[in-house]
Fold each of these.
Amino acid sequence: MDSSLVSPFPSSPSSPSRALPPTAPLLPETSRAAAAAAGSRQRDVAAEAVEWQEQQQQEDDEGCARVVVADSGAERSGARSAPRPWSRAELPTLSPRCRIPGAGHSGSEPGQRPGSPRDPAPEPAPSHLEPAACPHHPRAVEAWLDDNPDFARSYFVRKATREMINVWFEERVRPVVSVDRTSSSRGVGGGALGHAGATGAGGAVDGCRQSPPRKISASEFDRPLRPLLMEDPSDGSLTFVLGTEAAAPRSWSSPRPHAEASDVPGRAASGCVMAMATSVSAHGVGSSRSVSGERERFLELVKDIACRLDVVTLCHRILLHVNQVLTADRCSLFIVREDSSQERCLVSTLFDVSLGSTPEQARTSWLRLAWGKGIVGYVAATGNGVNIPNAYQDPRFNVEVDLMTGYKTQSVLCLPIKDNKGEIVGVAQAINKKGNNEGKFTEKDEREFGAYLAFCGIVLHNAQLYEDSLLENRRNQVLLELASLVCEEQSSLEELVGRIIDIILSFMPCQRCAVFIADKDSPNIFSRVFHKSLEVPGVAENTSQSESQSHPVSFIYAEFVMKMLTLLNIPDVHCDNRFNLPVEERGNYRTKSLLCAPIQNRKKNEVIGVCQLVNKLEEGAGEVRPFNRNDEQFVEAFAIFCGMAIRNTRMYEAVARAVAKQTVTLEVLSYHAIAHEDECAKLQTTSVPSAQSLNLLDFTFSDFGMAEELTAVGSLRMLLDLSLLQTFSIPNEVACRWILSVRKNYRRNIAYHNWRHAFNTGQCMFTVLVTGQAQNVLTPLEMLCLIIAALSHDLDHRGFNNSYIKNRSDHPLATLYGHSMLEHHHFDQCLMLLNSPGNEMLSSLSVQEYRSAVGMIEHAILSTDLATYCKNRGEFFSLVKDGTFNLEDQHHRKLLRAMMMTACDVSAITKPWPVQQKIAELVASEFFDQGDRERQELHVEPTDMMNREKRDKIPTIQVGFIDGICLPLYEALSCVFPACAPLLSGCQSNRQNWEKLTTRCDGQQDPGAELNDDGLK
């Protein structure tokens, strides 16, 4: 054969030559003649393709047949490799030499999809080869299939797999950004439906983009959401933490997992499309084009609804499409809902939709049908569709619907809408067939209606899942808003409850929301009532009152819930026979639906109020609807947050009242704590003796035998001799009043820690400063703070130590302070006096000096706690012993002031022996009183120091106190201030005397065994 092209179709003895596809005219003339001869046998083109597919499957090891193009046109001779037949997996694949740039199949092996990992590197193709030069090039094959649609359709019906159909369908129904509006304009037809905004594929996609999901309101909470609360089996309380099983809603409307939901359209689509393909095959090739048009129209309808997530808009589009497909007069769609009694019912989301109507027009009225009642109820209960030629002859038809609407129903076609699990999610109803068939729906209508509703069930269920997620999100936002309100608003109960009512009304529109506040101390069951009324939609009136006459019906139910501690949901209060309700006379206001829940204090398990919602409103329509189970769940959760908020606010108000009372009390105490004016005037006019005449400069000073008035005069002399009044411009009147006020705030019934002890501590500090020459290294501000701290360090001492307060956990001082309770209290009292009118000793200081002075006074007073002294003394002793103590170092100075305070506080141990004995008796008397209280109140055995029955151990205790506390301190202080050596010698002398007394006591113990915070001072 004189040809430059070798045919890829095999020849064998058992079969005649195969005819080439319609691209044969591109072959040489001899090949075209052979093709024409073969075509004369009138072999069907479809049979030719089938025979091509049934060729040998095994690939030849030597490779594919090559196409050789001769530049000179001469015939090539010689042996050629036997051509290999095509396999199914290889169709259509280029031969190795027929690779066209940009064809997308270059480099593919036989039977391999382009772009697979096994693809070799692309081989450059001759630039002069075009797709037409290769009869089995993909473009050539695709062109041939376009010219032979009957074969392509027949092959698709017979050979297409489910996966191919799924992929095809998903690509077709997926919304696209740009749509060719000229490609198909017959999808949904024109006419009245065109006014609804759907004109082919382009209109469908535009509708998806231009109709965003509408705002979700709580009036749509008719389908059950996930329960917010459940009862904890351990204690019976309500909790937000749910188990997996408890959190699952009812199976008939339970949301499926996302993975399963995404797979549903493909599975459902495959079944419907296969059914359509079977219908095409049954009609035959002759009618295939008309059926193809119906299929395309059907797919356009599916595309129009597939991208919609708003339930109302989706239902409206579905009904418009049903009108178009069935040529029905009117259509309705009923959604499965659950009422407040958790019984299923059917609600007409859109009723009597006709061509040209809008969703707003179709929503003006709605019907609620019982489950299993009427034609729609029967279809929902049984899952079987019905086709009724004459509705009035069917006993299931409810004539009242026609009477209510004024419409005459003749024929009815009603089918269920199911989701992927076969659960019924709605019922679609077409009424009054228009056109031929005597106004009756045909079997074809049933098939088309059922096929379309199969898609609608999936899309509707997904839209409901989407709206459920929006509702869940909105509900959680409201609860989070309430939670934040609990943390933020605590100052006023009126403002708190007002904001709570605003939040709940924004989420759940109703005519009235009220919060009743209970108070067990009030003569009435409710002490206060806060409510907001929506008498006129859109107008809110805020009022608060406590009288039950304004809303007697609401008050009756609130009182009932208060006593029974149970949630109450009444669809119509006037149908409730439990109460003899009075007649309401408030204009157009009439209580109908009511939801009431108790507000409890979960910690104390007591009712603190009642939350009540009256007359739930249908958004847009303004009609009163009953509350449902979702409303109950929300109100239960709301009541918990409301309870916490009210409880916290009432506690805050109680604390605010307590603070106000405390302020008044402090004012009263401050008045009585401040010295009287006549005492101040007397001290101002008194002649102040010198420090020498009062013996204030001697370390052996004793206040025994000194009159009470002289102690105040002596304190004034200390301030004068240190030049503190002149340095800080302190008026003499202020100094006198402050000294007398400090003396007045020491308790006189305390044996030792009284004003006399404070005066002795102040005198010792004065002696250390003057006689001990400490004033040479300390600043005037430091000396002022040390004198103030010494005189105030035991203000309002109660006669017991910190150990007693620690054992009394309920003591107020233990609640106020964590450590050094008495010392903190002494400082607070000192600061209170310094800030009292007429006692401002620090008023002339600058802000920085004042802060520094207050800090030094606080540190000095807290240093008198022997527990604090024991923590700090090690560092001070090491610095002194090593000779590294530096007065220029502020930390060292701070340590020095602390040691000076302790040395002056326990200076009684350095006094002459007769004075020391008397002071020891006073200390022992106070300690024994504390021991008696511990035995009586705390029921514990006191330590030996506090035990009156072990009085004989006082000498041993004193020796231990001197060795453990006093001697190391005075030794170190004498090293810093050598002039303070009399303190050390006096302490050593008293130790010898106490040690002599220990020989008289039986059972001598370890000297340090009986030490506590105070010791015997």
Amino acid sequence: MDLTDIPFDVPIILQSLRKHKNLQNPVGTKMARCLADNRDVYEQVVLRHITDDKVAIQSARNDRFLQVRTNGDCVFDSTRLDDRDLFTMETDVACSIYFVSCFTGNVLQCNDDHSARCENQNRLDWEAWSIVEPRTTDATRGSISSRDRQQLILALAQGDKSPDEVEQIVARLVHALLVLGVEQQAQDRSLEELAAAAFPALPELEKELDGLVTFGVVDVAPHHQDAIGNKWQLAKLPALVLYAAPPKENPYTGKLYRDAETADVRLLENPRKLKRVLKQAIPAEFVTELRGADATVKSFEKLVAAEEALALLVSKHKHATPMYRALATEFSGQGLSFAFLSREEEGAEDIIAALGVEELPAVMVLKSMTERVLLQPEHTKTYRELKGFVEPFAAHAGGDSGMKGDKKGRSKYIRFFTGKDFDDLVMKSDVVWIIEFMNAEREQALTEEEWKKTLAELHRKAGVVALGAVSCEKEAELCERYGGPGVRIFPLGLTGEKALKRDDVLPDTFAAIDEAKEAAIASIPDLTVRIESSAELNGFIANTRGERALPILLFTSKKTTPPMMKGLLFSVPSQKIKLAVIHDADEDVKKQFMVKSSASTSLICLVPTKVDAEEPASAPFGVVAFQKKTMGPYTYPNIMQFILQVLAQYPHPRDAKPEDAAIDLSSLDASSGSALVPYLTKQNMDNLCGSNKICAIGFFEDHVDTLTDPNSRLTKWWNTLVHVAAQSKQHREPFHFMWINGKCQKQFAEAFGIGLFQMPTVAVYSPSKQRYATNVGLFDEENASVFLKSVLSGSIATAPIGDVPELGEECSIEDIQEVLLGADGAVEDDEDLDDMLSEILSDEKQQRDEMEKELKAEQKQSKKGKKKHKPKKKKKKAKKKKAARDEL
């Protein structure tokens, strides 16, 4: 199921299509019920995307997850996820939604007693749900307005505001939020005073980052303790929460919200380190950096002509400064685009001369190559000056932003490919593609309704035929590669071993998609077996069952095999299934398999009723038939649901490959290690981490040449990842391991949420699904292995990733040193990250030792207290309060 447009992480209403009542957790019970259609806070739930098509249903009122029990009861009980809380989302041609329990395999339904239960595997009206909009929004999700940035601390919460409200920060800049738990005795002091007393460096840091980062403080003491763990996943207080990701829009309310990530609160004690971390967190995706072929006068003229208004920074630095990135982030979506040009680019001097720039840095806004306004260099020092310069142009250009927004919204349903992702997502996929190469006129006339109608028809008829588009105006090279505007088919073929492969594009060019549909459907490879006699049928069944595959029989009066049946065999790659087509079968054969003689079409599966390990072909079998009355017409989605239900009860997995020989970690040398964990570069990216691979990428800081030193820290990190890769291979995990220089490929690393301060680390990346997960914590064999296993099991959820930047050219050792430059080009004198990590680990060990001593003392005191009277207990209580006060 395509989950692209499902509104995750926002309050929604799940309504039963049969009962027209809404799923809810009523006050006074944990049982899930379907009682009313008020669409208020008691009926609001939140869908949490866990992994792939698995979700959890969480009550918006009390944060409890819907849990399925073995007797079919559904209860809002748990606050921590486990297998009983997970559902697989499915849909049908009517766009009804079904929630299949991952624990029992049964489907969520609303029965006549108004109870929500999971007690059968049907996909009928009783089990069908739809997502509707709440009539009222959650009262705890109000937006928060910012105060003057010149204040010491921006007070985002004052007693009556909850952590939910803090999550509604909508400013586009980076927010650093300090979370406190203020004691009763300290509540006569303001939050600003408490924060400044605990971390004296904050006032000066806020002045230095004025405009780039805003600071906030919130007190969670007035709220119940669950809020700490559920909202920000905080282990203890005080804590530091960063809002660095771009805002997202609630699809119902239109309000913006942002995802948070926690950072080590000890960074507040190291202002230089925190300053660098916050600067790195400022998004870079809103600035187009002109490099290589884009840094020529001709390319720049095209860029200016394509934009309504373009802000340009020309500088001697290699990358856009944090201040300029913050400016682009704040004005994104307001009709003003931002570009950056480094003077060191080969074609930069020609562009500088064409623009008449005499002094660097230079900031200007262009409406055309001749209509431009330049900001004097002396006014580029502060954020306020830059903002004041570009703001009038954003307001002037904002009138057209609605049109652009409409185009963006249309792209949710119409998949436009770029030259960058065409090979991976089209040429290396396992479906037939119809690609329309569009000129500007066709692109403008394209409608969402037309596209969705064609998609639905293709999915219903064939299932394995997909639809995509290429803009010839934006992707001229890709368009010309395949012959210019027109509709073309990219078919599948079969190898000599009957495995799928990508065939050459069909020679025909079609004027419209409707003309190409039949040719695309006809190109689906046919692996079905045509049966002409009873002897052939018996032989097919015996051979299939002997190979431990699931025999599927299609009885049809048609002379040709329906395309949906051809696509069926490619749709369940993890299972062994074989399909035989019997055309115009006689009555005796139909009777043998309990098929009505009058039926023109019938689909049955032959399932084992008794397992015989030695003679699987001779074991008795039963017949499971597709019931048209309950499952609907013979369409690809309905048939797929039927086959998956059968396989869920009678699995037929493909033969496992033989276990790899155990790897002796001590015998790994540099050559075998390089084969296990190669170095990722621009040239080998597609080969190492392309198509449907699951990549485990190590992000390290140092230059590849330092691997020659056996005592270097890069050698130590690399050896750690090599050992993890060897163990993963031994356990037959699906990861492909590699490593990359995160300093050199800084933008690539930042796409995975990895800054310089977070290396060394490892991230998991699926390029086909565009999802990732990054390890947080100490980088060693144990933690890295546990992280990878947790991603596989789903206990660590993956997140969607945006456009992953292309890898750049390799850096010299001198280039890597320049990455550490600050915004003004000066090297910041931060201490080594390893030293800071050692300090943190040392402090944590000291705290654990002290806690153990206190625990032993308390146990000793408790034994004495049994022999004495109660005053001793009061003393112990007072001591506990003091410890909490010291923590703040």
